[in-house]
Write a structure and sequence with these properties.
40% of the residues lie in helices and 6% in strands. By secondary structure, it is mainly alpha-helical. The protein has a two-stranded antiparallel ribbon. It has a two-stranded antiparallel sheet with strand order 2-3. It has a two-stranded antiparallel ribbon with strand order 4-5. Strand 11 and strand 12 form a beta hairpin. The longest helix has 26 residues. It is globular, with a radius of gyration of 23 Å.
Length: 564
């Protein structure tokens, strides 16, 4: 966002916010602005909305709230260092380091706090109906988004809609009733008739929406209905509702109502040089500030880089996911095709210094795994997509936009939902084909869609979405979210606690390497590469308790109702 927006956000946020979803219920308001004295004109409504967006920014400013998504089969983390919380999620364990649980919970409830304040008090301001609808639509949407995020991670939740003191006694609301509230909020946001396209700051930047639009609401409803159709509610009738909402967005794109579409080249999707592109339906914008490390900075630029390549290694690929990932332009854009060593030599991730089978000590790059690049930018001018052959930027805070929903996802949600709802498959197949045409070089991967049954189409669209968001833990629907909905997280557990005998790289593969003196050479792999993940999975499987995250211990201390 623009600097003036960020400063307004932080100033307004400081007026309203406390430190957790429970603390605010018992806080003494003396000496502070109250709703009765604040919500009186357009300027104050704007400040409240800025405060809301400040908390939206804070939600994803760093990697802590995303730690839970390491449960998916696409990401793991560097072993050692400060990664205990990441690795516990990856191994289906209760963490000793609970920063992921605490931050994920706290930041979502901060969004809810400000949204509640706007919803309850903005109508008294006397501003125009159009401007009131704009503010209310943002508040309804982000409150729904927050609960949608929380319910898929924690299950039953304490619902707060009015910021009323409760002495930490709020009971848990069932998953089904949490979803009812989410849908109600999204329905209310839709009734606010939000614009399809914003044209002025702070609602837009570089011709693209920053504020929630009507198509973002419809897209989110499609995702929510899919979640309701899957685990744990398993109300499969909602797949038709999901398909209908996704189709509204697709129709709007095709008739020109919504200014979105697929980028022609996949490598542009995560390009810093194309930061505000029309494929993003919903994003979070950041404005890097002097000194950095603020809640208005995106601190992800080193999170995909391997630890041995001077990165943080927060979210790095599981080798099986890389091995099964379909070849084509998308794979070349999602993963670094080769790894660039400190002297500029390009090597394959499985390369060894002596050309012999890997023994744990002879790797060229000690992490010995592939690398995602969605968060990474090159050193120097960043007007182009990331180039794995060039040095990467070693800083941290950057104003790279986070992409929560992309149009490709809506196409895949429609294809899967329509197939699972036994609707007409013609347009559903076309939606999947659009995504595949860009992702694959092999034309047969596109034409084979025409002969798919409904079940095959649904599974193909499901898998395709996992590839579209693989490693991108910032998405509203991550790979872990998909696997949760389909109740397939135990498959990850079974593989990781089993023999892990998948062939990652076959015998005979030409390998680009570098010896101990820094000299490049090539060799053919002597035997199939089969390798377990670094983090072992040994905790017993305990059904829902293994799937859902623990309630944050600090919150449990305050509210004893937080028991599953």
């Amino acid at each position: 966002m623009k600097n003036k927006i960020l400063s307004g956000c932080l100033m307004a946020a400081s007026m309203f916010l406390a430190s957790s979803c429970s603390d605010f219920l018992t806080e003494d308001p003396k000496g502070k602005l109250t709703p009765e004295s604040f919500y009186t004109n357009q300027n104050e409504i704007d400040m409240a909305v800025y405060a809301l967006y400040a908390k939206v920014q804070a939600y994803q400013c760093n990697s802590n709230p995303m730690i839970s998504y390491c449960q998916g089969d696409d990401v793991t983390s560097t072993t050692g260092s400060n990664k205990a919380a990441y690795l516990s999620a990856d191994a289906f364990e209760s963490p000793t380091d609970t920063k992921g649980l605490e931050d994920g919970w706290k930041r979502m409830y901060h969004i809810i706090l400000v949204a509640n304040d706007i919803i309850d008090n903005a109508p008294q301001s006397g501003i125009s109906q159009e401007n009131l609808d704009l503010a209310m639509g943002q508040a309804y949407y982000w409150r729904a988004y927050a609960y949608y995020t929380l319910v898929r991670l924690f299950g039953p939740l304490p619902i707060n809609l009015h910021n009323e003191p409760d002495n930490n006694t709020t009971p848990l609301t069932s998953v089904e009733d949490v979803y009812k509230q989410i849908v109600e909020d999204l329905d209310n946001a839709e009734k606010c008739n939000l614009p399809a396209k914003y044209t002025q700051s702070p609602q837009a930047i570089e011709g693209q929406n920053l504020y929630v639009s009507q198509q973002a609401v419809k897209s989110t409803l499609a995702a929510v209905y899919m979640s309701m159709a899957g685990y744990p509610l398993n109300k499969t009738e909602y797949y038709q509702k999901a398909a209908e909402k996704a189709k509204e967005v697709i129709d709007g794109v095709e008739n020109g109502t919504y200014d979105h579409g697929l980028l022609s080249d996949w490598k542009e999707v995560y390009s810093y040089g194309n930061n505000h592109h029309h494929e993003t339906i919903l994003g979070i914008d950041y404005n890097s500030t002097t000194g950095g490390w603020t809640e208005g900075d995106s601190q992800f630029s080193s999170c995909h880089q391997l630890n041995s390549l001077q990165g943080w290694g927060d979210f790095i690929p599981e080798r099986k996911f890389w091995a099964n990932y379909p070849e084509g332009p998308r794979k070349d854009a999602v993963f670094a095709k080769q790894l660039r060593t400190s002297n500029g030599t390009l090597v394959d991730w499985w390369a060894t210094q002596d050309g012999k089978p890997y023994d744990g000590t002879n790797a060229v790059v000690s992490d010995y795994r592939p690398m995602y690049v969605a968060f990474t930018v090159n050193d120097g001018p960043a007007a182009a997509p990331y180039d794995y052959t060039q040095p990467f930027w070693g800083g941290m805070c950057i104003n790279k936009r986070h992409q929560l929903i992309r149009y490709s996802e809506v196409l895949l949600w429609y294809a899967e939902s329509a197939a699972r709802a036994n609707m007409d498959l013609t347009e559903a197949k076309n939606a999947l084909k659009q995504v595949r045409q860009r992702a694959y070089s092999d034309v047969s991967k596109v034409t084979e869609v025409d002969n798919m049954s409904a079940d095959q189409l649904a599974e193909a669209a499901y898998q395709e979405h996992g590839y579209e968001v693989g490693g991108y833990v910032l998405a509203m629907v991550t790979r872990r979210s998909d696997e949760f909905r389909m109740n397939r997280l135990k498959e990850n557990y079974d593989y990781r606690s089993g023999s892990q005998d998948l062939i990652l790289v076959p015998k005979g593969t030409v390998t680009h390497s570098m010896d101990k003196e820094g000299k490049a050479f090539t060799y053919n792999l002597e035997k199939d590469l089969v390798l377990k993940e670094n983090m072992s999975v040994t905790a017993p499987w305990n059904d829902a308790k293994s799937i859902y995250q623990d309630y944050p211990p600090k919150e449990v201390e305050k509210n004893p109702n937080l028991q599953r």
